[in-house]
Design brief:
Radius of gyration: 17 Å
CATH class: Alpha Beta
Distance between the termini: 36 Å
Order of helices and strands: EEHEHHEHEHEHEH
Structural class: alpha/beta
Number of strands: 7
Largest sheet: 7 strands, mixed
CATH topology: Rossmann fold
Length: about 250
């Protein structure tokens, strides 16, 4: 990358072919096996899946704090000092950096024989990655045609709001929200529901009853299996419609 060496996890089906690409935009914790397993799940149904380390300017940052059941402890349940340590790298990562990095990633993916050169892509963003997914589909509307934001944070802000970036997109967009997630209050969910359908995107969302922030991540102490499976029930057909259009 122009700003340094980025580490990235890539997985795709073993059958020799070219596959549509899906980029996973990481959450605040950084890269880890949990995200790699999600990428493997996406790859099994016919995609070239990439999980980039957007913290690469700061090094290989990995945060995992586990309870007695070996579940990752959600941020709100950590002590203040540990919580601040997890959040610190985020303060040095801007949305513009992610947009810039994504442009270079598209060139990297296009050059990989396992990915379809110049073809439409999909993306999935978790937590802060949900916001980053909003940004990139608006900045690269010709490339990203399917996008999912799962328990995304700061999707609407007072200045330069990420949700306004989506208005420039041409993608099909899905958002999964947790009913108990303090980062996605009903006012925000309603604003997105009123604003996004007025654009050129096809927008769909679900508010998962009883689910909290982080519900979609399988190793988290707040993981909600039913809600996460419902997300996949919507995401995979969306990817198929938009990234394999000739098969429809």
């Amino acid at each position: 990358m122009a700003s340094g060496a980025m580490d990235i996890f890539i997985v795709h089906p073993s059958h020799p072919a070219t596959y549509p690409a899906v980029i996973i935009y990481m959450d605040v914790w950084g890269l880890r096996e949990e995200l790699f397993d999600i990428a493997r799940r996406v790859a099994t149904v016919g995609y070239y899946c990439a999980v980039p380390n957007f913290y690469y300017r700061q090094g290989k940052i990995r945060h995992e704090f586990r309870n007695e059941r070996n579940q990752m402890i959600t941020l709100d349940r950590l002590d203040e000092e540990t919580r601040n340590r997890v959040l610190a790298p985020l303060q040095q990562l801007t949305d513009s950096m992610v947009i810039e990095d994504t442009g270079e990633l598209l060139e990297f993916i296009d050059a990989d024989p396992a990915a379809r050169n110049g073809a439409p892509l999909g993306c999935i963003g978790y937590c802060m990655g949900g916001r980053h997914a909003f940004r990139v589909i608006g900045h690269y509307p010709a490339r990203f045609l399917a996008s999912a934001s799962l328990h995304g944070t700061d999707l609407i802000t007072a200045v330069d709001s990420p949700h306004l970036s989506v208005l420039k997109a041409k993608a099909e967009v899905y958002c999964g929200f947790g009913e108990r997630d303090r980062h996605t209050p009903p006012t925000m969910v309603n604003t997105l529901a009123q604003t996004l359908p007025a654009s050129s995107v096809t927008y769909r969302y679900e508010v998962h009853k009883g689910a909290d922030h982080g519900y979609a991540l399988p190793e988290r102490d707040v993981y909600d299996k039913r809600s996460a499976n419902r997300d996949w029930e919507i995401i995979f057909p969306m990817f198929h419609r938009r990234l394999y259009p000739s098969s429809m």
